[in-house]
Design goal:
This protein has no helices and 11 strands. By secondary structure, it is mainly β.
């Protein structure tokens, strides 16, 4: 089992920045891909950013809607993955979830609310 705990959400004005953190309960980055997803009210959960496992090369992909504004990264020593979000827009408002995936194993965090509003 893996527990994922997100933090860092909150209320921010348009154009502002937030950094989300996702702490894993044990060292998993060597084989687990880590991703950030979001779900806005009335919409399906969507992938925001993903970083592949260390053994898979650490490749990174972003949703088109966040390219150039969001950055996913990880600190292997702290078992923590981050999502730096800059130039935030109202349409980025959602609950953001951390995900760990390896083959058929998948774990989710509890989610953290991000609200972009003036």
């Amino acid at each position: 089992q893996v527990q994922l705990v997100e933090s860092g959400g909150g209320l921010v004005q348009p154009g502002g920045s937030l950094r989300l953190s996702c702490a894993a309960s044990r060292s998993i980055f060597s084989i687990y891909a880590m991703g950030w997803y979001r779900q806005a009210p009335g919409k399906q959960r969507e992938l925001v950013a993903v970083i592949s496992s260390i053994t898979s090369g650490g490749y990174i992909n972003y949703a088109d809607s966040v390219k150039g504004r969001f950055t996913i990264s990880r600190d292997n020593a702290k078992n923590t993955v981050y999502l730096q979000m800059n130039s935030l827009k109202p349409e980025d408002t959602a609950v953001y979830y951390c995900n760990a995936r390896y083959r058929s194993d998948a774990y989710w965090g509890q989610g953290t609310q991000v609200t972009v509003s003036s």
